[in-house]
Amino acid sequence: MTTHYIAGNWQAGQGEAFDSLNPVTQAVVWNGQGASAAQVDSAVQAARAAFPAWARRSLEERIAVLEQFAVTLKAHSDELARTIGEETGKPLWESATEVTSMVNKVAISVQSYRERTGIKSGPLADATAVLRHKPHGVVAVFGPYNFPGHLPNGHIVPALLAGNAVVFKPSELTPKVAELTVKCWIEAGLPAGVLNLVQGARETGVALAASAGIDGLFFTGSSRTGNLLHSQFAGRPDKILALEMGGNNPLVVDQVADLDAAVYTIIQSAFISAGQRCTCARRLLVPVGAWGDGLLARLVAVSATIKVGAFDEQPAPFMGSVISLTAAEHLLKAQQHLVDKGAVALLEMIQPVPNAALLTPGILDVTAVAERIDEEFFGPLLQVIRYDGFDAAIAEANNTQYGLAAGLLSDSAERYQQFLVESRAGIVNWNKQLTGAASSAPFGGVGASGNHRASAYYAADYCAYPVASLESETLSLPATLTPGVSL
Ligand SMILES: NC(=O)C1=CN([C@@H]2O[C@H](COP(=O)(O)OP(=O)(O)OC[C@H]3O[C@@H](n4cnc5c(N)ncnc54)[C@H](O)[C@@H]3O)[C@@H](O)[C@H]2O)C=CC1
Ligand SMILES: O=C(O)CCC(=O)N[C@@H](CCC(=O)O)C(=O)O
Questions:
Q1: For residues 352 and 371, is the Cβ–Cβ distance under 8 A?
Q2: What CATH number was assigned to the domain covering residues 250-430?
Q3: Is domain 4-245+450-471 given the CATH code 3.40.605.10 in the classification?
Q4: What are the coiled-coil residue ranges (predicted)?
Q5: Which residues contact 225 (CB under 8 A, 6 or more apart)?
Q6: 98 lines ligand 1 (CB under 6 A)
Q7: pTM
Q8: Is the dihedral of CA 401, 404, 408, 412 positive or negative?
């Protein structure tokens, strides 16, 4: 099976065989062989060869190809949404929103490029100061499985726009979405070699990250892998590394007037995408006392009724499956481990159908757990911590190595001001769900969530480097010479 797209040709893999499965039915969605180290190398060389001509094209020419890509995405949107659903288990309504985000990324990236990294100039007394931006060269893009279309696209579109050539290594759990996306680029007329696709698991990623031929690596994925890459790139200031990693995101609930609005917002924050968004609320901070007890009772009652099902089930479920049986098993074990450590299951997360990666929402009260685990559980498992006093809530919210997203549900503007000032995260929301960040804003975290290279609207910043010039069409002597020099 031809699975890799290198130098404008599809070719079969020479590495390990692997397949992607529908997480609910376990049916094979895609299979093939991963790229060998030699194939990764040829993909990097193809990108290197294609880079100069692509970078020399005018910005308008590159934009035209990108806009055509948006057109081809729209034309294939049903097929793409279905494939996202099949490979990830995400309900069709949600997969369709992912394709829309991919389409919208083009116009947003163009706007961002012009605003943040375009050409700017200003007159000086005897010259012109010009600021331009140049592409880095060949960049590797690593994607996660949870948004197999939208998140790699969030690196690829701005990278190509800036004039880079790309080698794309998608998640091994979602190869078919990557293949379809690359086909859309080909149909849009992207020249051969400018975007290359190498499929495969860890070994393919290791080979690509270690390639001497890349000038940068843009990664979205787990903190564990991101940290490995960070160590690997240490001492390499010549290569740009952008890391978008996970979080252990707190959502603080203050005593609010509209209890149902709070419950709905918590559900959208914790359980959308079956809890598989990096921005999902993982820790829910609830005040001690009767009001907090009432909120939790209502949250548990409503969460117990959430419809969970296969991606194409009708009527549509709110939550699809998690990515795999292995992931489901890992999450169930994590729940059991927390219960063993003293957590109280307010709503037990269960696997309702054997051999299907469907999980129901889980809510654990971990207040009594002595040493809470600061880890991201990437699924529908929400940990509740009761707090006494708003200062204590903020301290608890910040009690994590991560710093991606933090939210406050409160009727008090004053409390939000305090939360905004004191919380440590790249996304801080007020009375809004934590998930669903806008592509028109920067997207990134501090602490263990990233390396200060925010993506989305600020992706333009890591896709090009600034070149500052002082320019004068004629060379002439200044009116006054510096002391000590005579001509
Ligand atoms: N901050 C952000 O923007 C986002 C972060 N994420 C995070 O991504 C994670 C889920 O995605 P996963 O696919 O599980 O991440 P992952 O880290 O397992 O994999 C990401 C990519 O890295 C590759 N890879 C794995 N080990 C490697 C190694 N040693 N060297 C080179 N490449 C390697 C994988 O094959 C895949 O292409 C969650 O932790 C989530 O929070 C997901 C979406 C957005
Ligand atoms: O990257 C963008 O264009 C905006 C950020 C975004 O789409 N965030 C989503 C996905 C979160 C995740 O990566 O898991 C969100 O906040 O829901």
A1: no
A2: 3.40.309.10
A3: yes
A4: none
A5: 142, 205, 219
A6: no
A7: 0.97
A8: positive
